[in-house]
Amino acid sequence: MGSAKNSSSAARKARIEEMRRAEQSRDRRNRILTIAASVVVVTGLVVGGVVLVNSQSDDDSTAADGKTTGKFVTGADGVKTWDTKLSQTHVTKDVKYPMEPPVGGDHNQVWMNCNGDVYPEAINNVNAVHSLEHGAVWVTYTSKAAKADVEALAAKVKSTPYTLMSPDEKQADPIMLSAWGNQRTVTSADDPNVAKFFEKFVQGEQTPEPGAACTGGLSK
């Protein structure tokens, strides 16, 4: 039993490391594609007019506010899972999510870097949700969390690819863990549920876009 678990953990770690090595070449390719796409967009603006494009962007963002429906269902392990499919549309404005921190839904086309990144200040939900779509686990905390716990969690995040961490004073509990469609509260950095959540959800089966980059996005 223990041997099988160790083998599974080793396989996951190897897969994450392989993805990490591939990110650099994928980022170079993405930059080239982005430049090409930008040229096409600029040409379209000249031909079609800026007003039309802006109007379409507003329509998309407004529609997104009402798309996320459903509720959390708490499992026997204490993990809360959103009970309906979460939308993945890219929008240009802010989104009103029905949960805090959000675990999915429409989001900005640019993700927050999540390669073990620790942010000292609050980050935009619309960018962090995109990180969750890539299979990241997001650690958030309030000013009520103990300093020692924050420091220990930051150390864990920094050593784990496909994770990120930031403060969030709007959340209900001092320390919370989020992945796409899933969330739970933990009591401290030593809570065994921290390791369990990371093991299950870092590039876990819930990931809509497994293997997508966690670098090349926003860094602050």
Summarize the structure.
The chain is an alpha/beta fold. The protein contains 5 helices and 7 strands.
Describe this structure in words.
- The chain has 220 residues and is an alpha/beta fold.
- It has one domain (1-220).
- It contains 5 helices and 7 strands; from the N terminus they run ααβββαβαβββα.
- It has helices spanning 2-48, 50-64, 125-133, 147-158, 192-201; strands at 72-74, 80-82, 115-118, 137-141, 163-167, 175-179, 182-185.
- It is globular and about 40 Å long.
- It starts with a helix and ends in a 19-residue tail after the last helix.
- The model is unreliable at 39-66 (pLDDT under 50).
SS summary, helix count: 5
* Uncertain segments: 39-66
Beta-strand proportion = 5-15%
Largest sheet: 7 strands, mixed
Compute the number of structural domains: 1
Q: Based on DSSP secondary structure assignment, what is the total number of beta strands?
A: 7
Proportion of residues in helical segments: 40-55%
Q: Outline, from the CA principal axes?
A: globular
Please write the string of helix (H) and strand (E) elements: HHEEEHEHEEEH
Summarize model confidence as the mean pLDDT: 84
Strand order of the largest sheet: 1-2-7-6-4-5-3
Rg (C-alpha, Å): 18 Å
| Class computed from helices, strands and strand pairing | alpha/beta
Distance between the termini: 42 Å
InterPro entries: DUF3105 (IPR021454)
Protein name: DUF3105 domain-containing protein
Keywords: Membrane, Transmembrane, Transmembrane helix
Pfam families: DUF3105 (PF11303)
